[in-house]
Amino acid sequence: MASSHEGNCLLLASFMDFGYVWEHISSSNPVTNNPGQSMKFKRFAIYFTPAPGPFADFGSAWLGWDADKGLAPPAPDLPDLPMSLEEITKTPRKYGLHATVMPPFRLASGHEESEIEAALEEFCFKHGPVAIDRLKTMRMGRFLALVPHERNDRLNSLAAAAVEGFDAFRAPPAESEILKRGSGGLSANQRKMLELWGYPYVMDEFRFHITLTSKLPEFQIERIGNAIEPLFESRLPQPFEIDALSLTGESLDDRFHLIRRCKLSGVNSPDSNT
Of 56, 76, 94, which Cα lies nearest the Cα of 214? Predict the structure, then answer.
């Protein structure tokens, strides 16, 4: 018998497995038409991905990749940019519009994709949504991202719980990956996070952000930031709610695809403990 919280997730793979046609949802929500439901993936990640709407649609067009639909939408006409959009968004393009919660990982031996889906459903049933007062465009190093206007401990706690909760599915990173990550001027604590969790920017090093650009030339950062700030911030819901988490997969062509999005519907959550 199906669990009482199964309806909180958009089931992209399991209904295909059982041969059902979920006509109502597939006709009303483009997420369910995602090609990712029948693909093989080399890595997985838990992301926040905004549901279809003005912000998500423009963000996908800006980056040049819609992970929900598995396609490259037409680029917006932005003649005032000092660089080509292709150059500006080259690095984050393959991920689609997202904020990292559990960084990309290879599946540990003995586990299957369906187990991560079940774990995501359970996790989202236990944790509730988190509201952010507002997001702002901000420089992070040499790239631009949307970040919370103020520190949000509830959001940080949710991300930490996800990293810990899904860690059993993560294969240890290869030594070459550790060396590559560790060569970037990490702090002692970031190195510790890399060793413990396979990624340096988790737990107390985590900072929620939605990446908008690649690393940019120093002299172009301010100009590009001024150009894109109104484009994104005018489309952002206020307040901005982290209302769901998404399981995504990296296909053989290196692009990420939405596999499943689950609503954060629980009361046993960072929001309820304050």
Answer: 94
